[in-house]
Design brief:
The protein is an alpha+beta fold. It contains two helices and three strands, in the order H-H-E-E-E. It is elongated.
């Protein structure tokens, strides 16, 4: 939310959607901003009056946090993890001395039949570490 309101046109749109006066050049958010007289989005929150109807309807699909860290976690869906690791080393002696080469791969595929903990929707992740 960093930055400034860019131009009177955008400031006018924000004023209409949010319901309070916004001016061109006003900061969108500042640390410790708790009042709409200081920044456009106090407490780094977009007022619900500015939310579109589709955004409001999507809220029912976003689970509430259920952990101490403020995230959502579930074990109610099956999850399959394929975790492949391989390593290879080659040593050889040459007239220049001992030469070595080593290669390691850590490849995994994670599939969830239910909601992904990252997105809240069906997920599949292929990664290499």
């Amino acid at each position: 939310m960093a930055g400034l309101v860019s131009g009177p046109f955008f400031a006018n749109i924000l004023t209409q959607e949010i319901g309070y006066q916004v001016v061109s050049g006003e900061p969108c958010y500042l640390p410790c901003c708790t009042s709409s007289s200081t920044c456009v989005f106090p407490n780094a929150a977009i007022p619900q009056s500015a939310w579109s109807v589709p955004a409001q309807r999507m809220l029912e699909y976003i689970p509430f946090p259920n952990t101490a860290s403020g995230t959502f976690a579930t074990s109610s869906y099956d999850q399959t993890v394929r975790d492949d690791k391989a390593g290879s080393r080659v040593d050889w002696s040459t007239h220049l001395g001992l030469m070595s080469a080593y290669y390691f791969i850590d490849d995994f595929l994670s599939s969830s039949a239910g909601r992904s903990q990252r997105t809240g929707f069906f997920g599949r992740a292929l990664a290499r570490g």
